[in-house]
Amino acid sequence: MDKAGTDQVEVVVAHSQRATLRVGDIFLKVDGDLAHADVEVRAMALAPIPTPAILWREPPALAIAAVSGTALGVLGAPSEASSAAWAAAGAAIRKLHDAPLPPWPGRALDDVAAELDTECEWLLSSGALPAEVVRRNREIAEAALRPWTPAFIHGDLQITHVFVDGDEVTGVIDWSEAAPGDAMFDLAILTLGHEERLDDLLAGYGDDVDRDVIRAWWSLRSLTASRWLIEHGFDPDAPGCEFDVLRSRMEDPEGR
Question: Per the database record, which ranges form the Aminoglycoside phosphotransferase domain (predicted)?
Answer without folding.
Answer: 10-215
